[in-house]
Amino acid sequence: MAERRSTGKAGRGAAEAAEGRGGSAAPASGVPARLAVRKTYKLYVGGAFPRSESGRSYPVTSSSGEHLANASLASRKDARDAVTAARKAFGGWSSRTAYNRGQVLYRVAEVLEGRREQFAAQAAAAQGLSRADADRVVSAAVDRWVYYAGWTDKFAQVLGGANPVAGPFYNHSAPEPTGVVAVFAPQDAPLLGLTSVIAPVVATGNTAVVVASETAPLAAVDLAEVLATSDLPGGVVNLLTGRVGEIGPHLASHADVNALDLAGSGELAVEFERAAATTLTRVLRPRPAPGGGEDAWLDPDPGTSRMTPFLETKTVWHPVGV
Amino acid sequence: MIFEYAPAPESRSVVALRETYDLFVDGGFSPAEGGEYLTTLNPADETPLARVAVAGPADVDRAVAAARRAQETVWGRMSGAERGKYLFRIARIVQERSRELAVLESLDNGKPIKETRDVDVPLVAAHFFYYAGWADKLAHAGLGPDPKPLGVAAQVIPWNFPLLMLAWKVAPALATGNTVVLKPAETTPLTAMVFAQICQEAELPPGVVNILTGAGETGQALVEHPGADKVAFTGSTGVGRRIARSVAGTGKRLTLELGGKGANIVYDDAAIDQAVEGVVSGIFFNQGHVCCAGSRLLVQESVAEEFLPLLKARISKLRLGDPLDKNTDIGAINSAAQLERIREITDTGEAEGAERWSPACDLPENGYWFAPTVLTGVSQAHRVAREEIFGPVLSVLTFRTPEEAVEKANNTPYGLSAGVWTEKGSRMLWTAERLRAGVVWSNTFNKFDPTSPFGGYKESGYGREGGRHGLEAYLG
């Protein structure tokens, strides 16, 4: 594989400085007094942080082309493992009370807020945002978790209800999570866009296999660390970094995937939608249109539009009588 | 005691069959450009009823163009209140012509007159009446302050509830300001052609409803037509997959209502006599030609020995025969092809080790008939437990614990319907919560209502028909 590219440049220093983790001033010899501890960016599957089973990684660069880190290059097997983990977590997560799911999502917001600095520096490095813009994106991402934390115990009332059938029956419709959702996160919105596609999926009780932005995956791995420390059960969100073109087809056609969010699937969206037809997998077509960056996701009230595609309606009848 | 029944046939005279039916396009009837016709039979005696035109690609073109024109110049611009009044009018005419529609449906489909008269046609009228009232209230449907119609809807419907499926498709589409091109099933096109006359009688603007008859090729040309903004299909999961594939990348919106393999769970504390009735109607209603049929009986092991003899005794009382006889419970199988499919799969049940039982039952000499059949000793691996038979064949499995019942019920790629029979409310709710199915009937089965959303999980399709939810499929 040619994914690994050796960079002669000492680009990492910039990233580390940007992340506030750089070494202290170098002595004349060029050897720092204290060597910074770099982070290994891994996958997040079933609540653990494994490397890709394929043993591969790929270099991630900043918006200006400097090497930031190596990200795991997930394989087909990793994708299948992630689906298995998501399926295993579905029963428990979907049967949590809505109140409890709301509290867990709110906890995600709390932990993310505590790591604002890290995420803002990351956004600035990865996307070349000004510090003010990076702060704005991080704030919006935190607020997005709060927004969906509030939805968990409301969407069922908004979307379901009593049906006045013409007969002596109790009849009631309620939304239920569809199951495992494969989420192709937006390519050009690695933090707020990512948050905006994950949060509605898990708020409604689904579990997710997320394919992070291919070129800017580091924020996703950082977010996975937030999720892992926020009482979100392992397996509810599984995160893969790598090539959409390599792992996407296996997720799109996977019989145990119930729905796809194609937001970041790019030119492969149609191919994935076609593959999804084989097992009648639900599909949310790409929207908003790519190219808008994080700004395309700033609307503070996206409503139910990213929840309903991943909800089924169950209608229960029962006779009324003595 | 055995009661003898005198024949009680409903009169056919209320139906005036034409020799041929042409396509209904742009408000009038016109022959298909290819000049081809197919013959629709009465499945109860195999006599020809009428010839109907077979629409080709050129006919699809002109129907879609007519629908587009009507949507842009008339229907999409009309106030919701006025649109609604047309639908109220249609509902009223359906009620006025209800006997004619019921008899014609029984002739063309083979289903008993008591079902067409008491279920299908009343629900058709109710469906139009329900969605008529939505037409001027769409801003209150929770789909945004000013939801817009999608444009032209291409709709393909099956033969098991011909006119009712038409109503499920046409009523919400029209209420939301869309226009439609609809293709009825090739074996049951006749009530749709009467519906076309009803549209004329209601003075519905030309092009708002277009009806193209034909077989699979016509349907394919319609759903793949680039002029369609929305595709709605009810039918087999196999065809549904093909449609989903063909729609990918076109931007068309899609709803699919596909097959099922519904489980009917009978717990040991169920009211046994009611459960027997429910299981019987769950599978033998409409000859089992029901996508949401309760085709898998899951009975708790501790009551299976008591339950099955009662079930068989009840089935032995079912009356099979002339669909137009008011005492008939089980009518004809809709077509020779469907009869062959039912025979083939049911035979595999026996071959795979299930025990087959049918009551003593005289089948008429002509026509397509299949005796009500129960297969016991069925395992989950058997084809008769996995595949949709779409006929009067019940597969019986047993379970010991509620967890096992749910596990078995959900062990299918389908997820359309399920039934639960228990006198304990908490157990009913516990079970209903865990069943991965779009409709759960508890202590009842096969109930339908225009206000009640209907549709499946998993490979039973997506989208809902009926209720407020049914509007979503037609608004953008």
From TrEMBL, chain A:
Keywords tagged on the record: Oxidoreductase
Chain segments carrying region Disordered: 1-30
The keyword Protein transport is assigned to this record: no
Residue ranges constituting the Aldehyde dehydrogenase domain according to the UniProt record: 58-283
Keyword Ribosomal protein in record: no
SUPFAM superfamilies, per database record: ALDH-like
Domain of life, per lineage: Bacteria
Family annotation (PANTHER family): ALDEHYDE DEHYDROGENASE-RELATED
Protein name listed in UniProt: Aldehyde dehydrogenase family protein
Species assigned in the record: Streptomonospora nanhaiensis
Highest classification ranks of the organism: Bacteria, Bacillati, Actinomycetota, Actinomycetes, Streptosporangiales
UniProtKB/TrEMBL annotation, chain B:
Keyword Oxidoreductase on entry: yes
A matching Pfam family: Aldedh
Domain Aldehyde dehydrogenase span(s) in chain numbering: 33-475
Keywords for this protein: Oxidoreductase
Gene3D superfamilies: Aldehyde Dehydrogenase, Chain A, domain 1 (3.40.605.10), Aldehyde Dehydrogenase, Chain A, domain 2 (3.40.309.10)
Name the record gives this protein: Aldehyde dehydrogenase family protein
Lineage: Bacteria, Bacillati, Actinomycetota, Actinomycetes, Streptosporangiales
